Every structure is written in C-alpha cells, then in structure tokens.
Amino acid sequence: MEQLVSRPEYPFGTRLLIDLINAGDLPMIAEADIEPQYGYVGRLVYTDGTVRFFRNSNKGINNHGASSICLDKGYTKYFLKKLGYTVPAGNTFLTDTYAALIDTNLSQYGEHDYDTPDRLLDAAAAVGYPCVIKPNSMTSGGKGVFICYDAEDVRIALASMLDEHIDVFLLEEHVPYADYRLVVFDGEVRLAYERQPLVITGNGQSTLRELLTQTRNDLWAQNRRVQIKDSDPRLTKKLRHSGYTLDSVLGEGESYQVYDAANASLGGQVVDVLETCHIDWLQLAGRMARKMGLRFCGIDLLCEDITRADGDYCVIEINASPGMANYATLGDAALERVRMLYKDMFSAPIK
After folding, report:
1. The pTM is what?
2. pLDDT of residue 141
3. To the nearest 10°, the Cα dihedral for 282, 325, 67, 265?
4. What is the CATH number of the domain that holds 288?
C-alpha cells in the first residue's frame, strides 16, 4: 500500500492512524481510503476482506446498539442502575413541544404523565442544591452541562436548553467528587486520568476578560481547540456566584476557577492516574464495559478517592467514542499509551 498523506488539520486520531499504517505497524490493513479534505472519516479494508469504517473518534469497534444506548444518558443510567452500579439520582425532563409530540402516540395507551419544565424548579428543590442540568443526548466537551446553585441558575439552564432546541434533558443530584475517565478496551483499562477545571491566575493588572483571551490563545497555540466564550452562560453564572465580573482584575497570584465543568473543550486539564488508581476501580470499569456490550469506551466516574477501594463513587455517563487527544499531550509516555491502544484497536478483528 502506498504511503498515506497526513495533514496537520486532520483530527488527532486520523493522524495517529496514518502514522501507524505508514510505519508498517498495521500490516493487516490492505487498503485505506481516508477522505482527503477533512480527514474526518475513512474506510479500511483488511487482508481477510473485512471492511471497517471510522468517523472521527468512532473507530468502528463497538456494535451499533450498544453505542446508540450510550448516546442517550437517561437510558445509559437506566441500564447501569439495573446492573447494580451507582448513578446520580434525578429525573428526565421533556420540553412541552416534545411531550406533546410523543403524547399523540402514548396517550392512546393511557400515558399522560411527563416531567416538563413547569415541574423543574420543584424537582430541583427536591433533589437539592447544587444540582446538575444537562442535555440527555451525548454532546462533545460537556456542552450544555450546568451546575445550578439556586433557582436563578435553574432558570438560566432551562433557557439554554430551550435556546439550543434540546428536547430532552436531565436533572441530577450534584456529586462533589473528583472527575475521572477510565478508557477501556476489551475489558482492560488502558488509560485513566483525572479531569480538572480550568483555573487562571492573576497578575494584578489584567482583567478576567483579558486573562481568558490570553488563555484561549495559548491553548489554541497548543493545538487545543477550546471553546471558551465570554458569552457562555456557564461562565457568566460562575462569575455571578463568585462576585466577579469580566472586568474584574485578579490580584498577583490570585487564582480563579472559570467553569464548574472540567471538560477539555473548556480548557480543563488532565492528570494521569493509571499508576495510582486502585485495581478495584480498574476491574469495575472492565466489568461495566463488558456488561454494557462495549469493547471500547470511556467511563466517566466521580470518585471520593480513586486510590482506595472503599471510596464512594457515581457513574455519570459512558462515552462509546472517547477522544484521547488531550490525554496524549501529557508527554511521551501518555502518547505511547495512546499509540499502542490505537494499534491494538485497529489490529483487532471486528466481532
């Protein structure tokens, strides 16, 4: 097979796959057709005639049904709870328009009771503050996830759901533990890392707006396509509770946490914990992936102490197509782990 052309604007995963193929590390791939303009999708033909497609972080390794369930956070929680795993307490809400739409069918069978936005404030008070409101469908980078500290925050989150035309969203209890992702392949945890929110540090002169602009520019220069926007309601909500504005000046050495969420797209940082993670959590993640029918996934876990076996925990979601670009920036060892994981995934036969 001829050498494949890689371009710097291609997604990280595509560039890594091309590098593996060109290096001869995937000899079982006989043909590779990667869409040349964006490098977002590709078709691989193996020497035994098997065909595999990939689309960005979806590597074509999981069965479609299991992957589809993971796109729906409410259904994922349902199955995880039935399997005996701890998930956040809460409710699934439907917009009035969506409730009316499904009612045209379900009302024929006597189903009329839906959680709609008019019940949201009472439900949030029952769950307790702080609480979490987030889209039910899987979104990249934690888009649309709000931690709400009072009724005004709930109203802001609801307005965002409606503005973004999100038909189904979740209200959940807030679990105040560290945020971890365990990446599993064929029952084994291959990557484990803590996700930490973006924190900026003042210099006694620059405003928060200026510091955010500089941080955004610095992260983009590192090829991290963060989505830090002054108009983000999650950012302005955090400012309201902290007593700052975008024109506030942080003192020399004073730190400020920009978002509640720790997602990479919001500038969050990752800390490798594979070597310190207690084996019980690694085994739990491997079993969970198998029981959910997933060969490859990222399990998002809130854990009281991941170095101990007896800490409390909560599974917030499972991503059947986890990205690994942010983790790979931790250094040569992390990049090599990701490289070996890609090699194993694309070497593995489709089951």
Report:
1. 0.92
2. 60
3. 110
4. 3.30.470.20
